[in-house]
Amino acid sequence: MPQHTLPGRPVPLDRPALRDRPAASVPPALPVHPDRPRVTELRLAAFTSHRRAAFPLGPLTLLAGRSGCGKTSALRAYEALARLGGGAELGEAFPDPVACVPERARPDAQRRRGFRIGCTADGPAGPVRLDVAVQAEPELRVVGERLTSDGLVLLETALRDPGKRAVQAAWHTAGPTSVTRGPLPDDRLGTPLLPLRVAGKTPGQRRVLAAAEQMVVALRSAFACDPEPSRMRDPVAAGSGRLRSGCGNLADVLWRTRAECGRRHAQLVAAVRAGCGGPVVDVLARLNGNGTVAAAVDRGGGHHTDLGLLGHGELRYLAFALVLLTGPGVLEVDPAGEVPAALQSLTILADGFDRGLDPRQRRELLGLAARMCERGHIRLVGAVSDGSWAAGTEGVTVVHLDRD
């Protein structure tokens, strides 16, 4: 089947996902659970340089384009939605909200400016849309939120009184009263709060709860990753063994994963052998006497290469491979603990997915990502400067952001 190559504009959501054949270094793909909620579209109606943009998201999606076309801002919008879906306050999701306001946006008569983002999550409740309007100036607050399914508005909020720190909400009931109204805070999304406000006694209420829970589960398990080799070269303090976004504590995580899961560690070694120069027998980690952890590549015959001596691209390749081969228990993410693991998927937001990699490393890393995403428990949205090298790779959706 042909590869998807799409511009960053509204497109149908029923495009089939493409798949890659499993390789010997990764166990055969498990059946994708049909009820696993997943985000299938990201919408940036008015956000930084984006206007009326919609990006289809498959199991493995690459946002391709030149510098400044908005790849990183799209990933940040997804990360912000994930934080909000987990119940975070606006200030945590948008630490610099003014930077999210569309370029050249003019304030209204009340000197207000803001932005609008949204997404679609598919799952057992069918496609569910979430659209959010945020005021960035003069103060950060939600001014509108809409949750819909099959054209039916399940939740709608609006800022009626700017003097109150609340929005007026209305959610679908379909009982003796068709709509229930009440205030919700204006510093966070209402969707993750619905399970606390909706009783679930009527079919309409249960439909609202199902849609809200599907959106929250689809969004909240996301890991933004942009490895920083400069922080990965030196020994690091022993800690929790959970990988941070910049992967600066890579040695500490290798110390943990090597001891806890020999099978996954063997897969990592095979991936490093395929993508890094020179012989690779093992990837080692050692605990130093001063409480720090150091890592090295075992070249065989008693020869080791410390991480500090690896190239920029080798370190980024190693970090991304580790991310793909682990999961929420190793990465610093907030999974939905109340939902069975079989119904969850982790979304990796990989900025600069091809940065610093040579052609072989790009090919090997993309193949590993396609095989892992085929298993269903991992999805990946990556930003690349050029998507042509991924052409012909099954299982990959390429979205070009800089096409006219």
UniProtKB/TrEMBL annotation:
One of its GO terms (molecular function) is ATP binding. SUPFAM superfamilies: P-loop containing nucleoside triphosphate hydrolases. Keywords: ATP-binding, Nucleotide-binding. InterPro entries: P-loop_NTPase. Residues 1-34 are annotated as: Disordered. It comes from the Bacteria. This is ATP-binding protein.
